[in-house]
From TrEMBL:
Name of protein: RNA helicase
Transmembrane annotation, as ranges: none
EC number: 3.6.4.13
UniProt organism field: Anopheles sinensis
Keyword set, alphabetical order: ATP-binding, Helicase, Hydrolase, Nucleotide-binding
Database matches in PANTHER family: ATP-DEPENDENT RNA HELICASE DBP3
Residue ranges occupied by any Helicase C-terminal domain in the UniProt entry: 405-550
Biased composition (Acidic residues): 1-10
Family: Belongs to the DEAD box helicase family.
Superkingdom of this protein's organism: Eukaryota
Biased composition (Gly residues): 60-89
Leading EC class: hydrolase
Domain Helicase ATP-binding: 198-378
Motif Q motif in this chain: 167-195
């Protein structure tokens, strides 16, 4: 289990919104410095075998790696996981909650020079987004030969008085400024989610939309929202109070949505800004200070800007949660609640709230009811199922034979555009280093790499300078990487929904794709039953070793219902008292 959560920071110090998890495969040999506080010095006491999950309290000083105290006098962070300690703004110890991550304060005192951090500190300023029209409109994935198969996909709509769907972009009623950009993007025919979602948003209704990966969800909400903003008279284009707030779970997905929004707003006065961790705060604030109508953000940086008073919501007309199943789990739900409850945020009756994802379990639907008002549900295809345009092959491979099998597969066909998923950050770097020493140009992407390195790795892969990208699950969420021809699950994920998200990086928008997975009976038996069902529904061959595996624990996937293939209100009405879903920590970077 590995995961790095969103970092936020200014030019003086860092505050951490969520804990930094270390690969459990690593031994707990983390070093720490003596803490400094107003009371006395103290060392963090580190649990010997937990790999960074527990830390005993550090009285007045800084805790161990799992329970870090004050950074140069700044308040201590809660110990990771069970019984974590925390600190007040003076570095004094107090008990933490018995939860993943504990609680923390971020003090006002600057100072980083006395702190030994887990990774290097960098004030990163990303390059300015391109103004070249060919580059703005040339980054998307062109529709493939199977695009017309979208017409045969079943769409289920529920809710009170849903508007009729549209058959074309021309009949959607979009302003000409928007239609110009639709045509420049090469869009000729809307996908099912676009046909049904656009009129719902245009009519001012809240929406819960669930569709397969690679089906055009971003355009489905972005086009009608931009249309609406262009209709507002007397808009203050120099205000940094956004009219649209879009929240995404990962930094790269936020960057991608930002690029899509800029594309559809091209040639208008609308200003699109993006805020995410790992980059210089002052740079992002300067960008927003010149005006911000559309803000795309990760939860951690958005909360940081809220607390600074740098972002307010008095102008907000739309709130969008992309990858909403992750945004409403235990990791991000508190942040979303903070945003929705902000004193300047309009009530759910006075704003439009839109939620999009490829999976929508019933418990997540229940949580969504807290934020949605008289919403319409749209479910496209087999929700939670794999795209039929992806050819899935599964090999039985023992742990220590995976590397040889990977080499064999890459040698058999053109390796260009191969995305390889592993479970740990350490293995991502190790495998990338090994593959680079062979004939395959390879890079890696995960939460422990600096933001500059992460963006460089992804750009190298997108541009073709690197044939192979080794990634942890952070790259599985929403990334629209052009020309991904092959996804390889070197390590299978623990849950079937993550499998669907991973292989959904290929075979997008009607293009053919290929997915290969290494199944280790000792490690992956719990997912076997669900793999069989996914393969069967997609019309793929089920290998004998899977059908007879007798896997334990699976069975959570039973068609579309487990992933939210139906509106839960059809059964028992919408409940708003649901508890957040326990999810394994996920990298937000």
């Amino acid at each position: 289990m590995s995961g790095e959560w969103e970092e936020t920071g200014d030019d003086q110090g860092l505050s951490f919104d969520k804990p930094n998890y270390t690969d459990v495969t690593e031994s707990a040999n983390n070093d720490f410095d003596n803490g400094t506080s107003n009371e006395n010095n103290g060392n963090g006491f580190y649990e010997d075998t937990s790999g960074g999950y527990d830390s005993a309290p550090s009285y007045g000083g800084r805790g161990g790696r799992g329970g870090r105290g004050g950074r140069g006098g700044r308040g201590g962070r809660g110990g990771r996981g069970r019984g974590g300690g925390g600190g007040d703004r003076n570095g004094n110890y107090r008990n933490g909650d018995d939860t993943e991550g504990g609680e923390h304060y971020s003090g006002n005192d600057p100072g980083m020079d006395q702190v030994k951090t887990d990774k290097p500190r960098e004030v990163y300023i990303p390059p300015l987004p391109t103004e070249n029209e060919a580059e703005i409109f040339g980054s998307g994935i062109s529709s493939g030969i199977n695009f017309d198969n979208f017409d045969d996909i079943e769409v289920r709509v529920s809710g009170e008085n849903p508007p009729a769907h549209v058959e074309s972009f021309d009949s959607a009623g979009l302003r000409e400024e928007v239609m110009v950009n639709v045509r420049k993007s090469g869009y000729t025919k809307p996908t099912p989610i676009q046909r049904y979602a656009m009129p719902i948003v245009m009519e001012g209704r809240d929406l819960m939309a669930c569709a397969q990966t690679g089906s055009g969800k971003t355009a489905a909400f972005m086009l009608p929202m931009i249309h609406h903003l262009l209709s507002i008279e007397g808009m203050d284009f120099y205000s940094r109070a956004p009219y649209i707030v879009i929240v995404a779970p990962t930094r790269e997905l936020a960057i991608q949505i930002h690029d899509e929004a800029r594309k559809f707003a091209h040639g208008t006065k609308l200003k699109v800004c993006v805020s995410y961790g790992g980059t210089a705060v002052y740079h992002q604030l300067q960008t927003m200070n010149t005006g911000c109508q559309i803000l795309v953000a990760t939860p951690g940086r958005l909360i940081d800007f809220m607390n600074r008073g740098a972002v307010t919501f008095e102008n907000v007309k739309f709130v969008v949660l992309d990858e909403a199943d992750r945004m409403l789990d235990m990791g991000f739900l508190p942040s979303i609640e903070q945003v929705m409850a902000h004193q300047t945020m309009a009530s759910k009756e006075n704003r439009q709230t839109l939620m999009f994802s490829a999976t929508f379990p019933s418990e997540i639907q229940e949580l969504a009811g807290r934020f949605l008002n008289n919403y319409i549900c749209v479910f496209v295809g087999i929700v939670g199922g794999a795209c039929n345009d992806v050819d899935q092959v599964i090999f039985q491979v023992e742990k220590f034979k995976k590397r040889k099998k990977l080499e064999e597969i890459l040698n058999e066909s053109n390796p260009k555009g191969t995305l390889v998923f592993v479970e740990t950050k350490r293995n991502a770097d190790f495998l990338a280093s090994f593959m680079s020493e062979t004939k395959f140009p390879t890079t890696s992407i995960h939460g422990d790499r600096l933001q500059r390195e992460r963006e460089m790795a992804l750009n190298d892969f997108k541009s073709g300078r690197m044939d192979v990208l080794i990634a942890t699950s952070v790259a599985a969420r929403g990334l629209d990487i052009k020309n991904v021809s092959h996804v390889i699950n070197y390590d299978l994920p623990k849950g079937i929904d993550d499998y669907v998200h991973r292989i959904g990086r290929t075979g997008r928008v009607g293009n053919k794709g290929r997915a290969t997975s290494f199944y280790d009976p000792e490690a992956d038996a719990s997912i076997a039953n669900d793999l069989v069902k996914i393969l069967t529904q997609a019309g793929q061959q089920v290998p004998d070793f899977l059908s007879g595996s007798g896997g334990y624990g699976g069975g959570s996937f039973n068609g579309s219902s487990s992933f939210g293939g139906r509106d839960i209100r059809d059964s028992y009405g919408s409940r708003v008292d649901a508890q957040p879903v326990q999810q394994e920590p996920e990298e937000e970077w």
